[in-house]
Design goal:
The protein has about 425 residues and is mostly helical. It has a domain at about 1-80 and about 255-429. The chain has helices at about 1-20, 25-40, 55-75, 85-120, 125-135, 150-160, 160-175, 180-195, 200-220, 225-250, 255-280, 295-305, 315-325, 345-355, 355-380, 385-395, 410-429; strands spanning about 330, 340. It has a two-stranded antiparallel ribbon with strand order 1-2. Helix 9 runs antiparallel to helix 10 (about 225-250). The longest helix is centred in the N-terminal third of the chain and has 36 residues, at about 85-120. It starts with a helix and ends with a helix. It comes from Leptospira brenneri.
């Protein structure tokens, strides 16, 4: 019964949004994504525990209020928008990002990627390198010259840039047919995946290709959909092969194991973790942080700055990240063994930690309004606003895997805002 109710909830919301108009396409994408995995989580294909109806109602509350806030904002503040014609501002915004990549970001990542290839070729095996790069072997990664400070600087400064260029790159490619930033973004994601020897970067690129296809169709109609589908198929197929190869290289046994673990389980385990922690009175989920958890990706910079002056604070990124890194018993496999998994608390973990049910409702209203505000960029065809909108979509899509606001995506959006503000200020002066 819970499965049917959940399916009908998402289905009716999506139908309602489609009837009301395609300006809500960003919200439709988010609801389709969460609805798909939320419904699938009830099938318990990989043996994960299904969530209680109380926990399910928390998901219902968030998505209901995000839709209500979206339409309330449009009702109160919506007005006819003209196409953005500020060519100089768009050109300056584009050029600033391009020069930063050429002079700073790309050289740094190419250097560390080259060092990664050397280490993998002559120093250690891929399996050992994977543990070493996260500091599990010596506590300080070889790739960063055994310097935790350098590793931290790389994460805080270079980390957000792959998202900055991915969001802005898709935006300018779709709206202006300018592909340099997208090429930089794709290169940075691939280089980071090589450095960290991980799969998630290729997942980002697959989602980026799909979103690009959706918005190209949105702006240009269905006339060239068939040819665009063929163009999208090639990179998606290559990325899937790369992901499959890395997964096999890291020890997976068969294709069915990969589907079971890396498709079904990875996309649904956060529901079980959230449900388990809601029922655990000792969980930090019930220790409210009143906004700091959802701002953790930015708060982390201030905490490090204050700590340099002797103020001993601990960032919410470290508190929540450290807590979620432990194993949670969230299911039983086909051999009747308990399933222990970690690190996959969703964005609901941080939203609830900031204020319980009221926090979920408040952030639903916030995300609904900010999505409505930046959805106006679709009418204006404004590359800056569209890049922020894409960032919000990524933030909520990948919020199913982890508390994304604790990581580099949030600073990436802030940086895009600051670059646009500086460009506007420069043009006025």
């Amino acid at each position: 019964m819970a499965l049917v109710i959940t399916f009908l909830f998402y289905f009716l919301l999506i139908v309602f949004l489609c009837i009301r108009g395609f300006r809500s396409i960003a919200l439709i994408i988010i609801l389709v994504w969460w609805g798909l995995w939320n419904v699938l989580s009830y099938c318990s294909i990989s043996g994960l525990y299904t969530i209680s109806f109380y926990t399910q109602c928390i998901y219902f509350l968030f998505f209901l209020f995000i839709v209500l806030a979206f339409f309330m904002y449009n009702f109160l503040f919506g007005k006819p928008s003209k196409k953005n014609t500020n060519v100089k501002k768009n050109r300056d915004f584009y050029n600033v990002l391009l020069w930063i990549s050429i002079c700073f970001v790309l050289p740094v990542q190419i250097f560390f990627a080259s060092r990664t290839i050397y280490i993998l070729s002559f120093v250690m095996s891929p399996g050992m390198y994977r543990n070493d790069v996260f500091g599990f072997v010596s506590g300080s990664p070889t790739i960063f010259f055994h310097s935790n400070q350098l590793a931290l600087l790389h994460a805080l400064i270079i980390g957000p840039f792959q998202y900055i260029y991915l969001f802005a790159g898709i935006s300018f490619s779709v709206l202006r047919k300018k592909n340099a930033l997208l090429l930089v973004g794709v290169s940075l994601v691939i280089l980071d995946s090589l450095i960290m020897f991980g799969r998630f970067g290729y997942h980002y690129l697959i989602i980026a290709v799909i979103l690009g296809l959706v918005f190209v169709t949105y702006f240009n109609g269905f006339a060239k959909l068939r040819s665009n589908l063929l163009k999208a198929f090639v990179p998606i197929f290559i990325l899937l092969l790369l992901t499959f190869w890395i997964t096999l290289y890291r020890g997976s046994r068969s294709f069915l194991d990969i589907i079971n673990m890396y498709v079904v389980t990875y996309h649904t385990e956060s529901f079980s973790i959230f449900d388990t922690e809601l029922k655990n009175p000792g969980s930090i989920l019930h220790q409210y942080s009143y906004g700091l958890s959802m701002l953790g990706g930015i708060e982390r910079y201030w905490v490090l700055f204050l700590n340099k002056f002797g103020f001993m604070f601990v960032s919410q990124t470290d508190i929540v990240g450290g807590y979620l890194h432990r194993d949670f018993n969230i299911g039983i496999d086909r051999f009747s063994n308990p399933i222990f998994l970690n690190a996959f608390g969703s964005i609901f973990f941080t939203m609830f930690r900031d204020g319980g049910i009221l926090g979920i409702v408040a952030f639903g209203i916030f995300f609904g309004m900010i999505l409505a505000f930046y959805s106006d960029s679709l009418k204006q065809r404004d590359p800056y606003g569209f890049s922020i909108l894409l960032g919000l979509i990524f933030l909520l899509i990948y919020g199913i895997f982890q508390p994304t606001t604790l990581g580099p995506m949030l600073p990436a959006l802030l940086f895009l805002f600051l670059v646009n503000f500086i460009v506007k200020l420069y043009n006025k002066v």
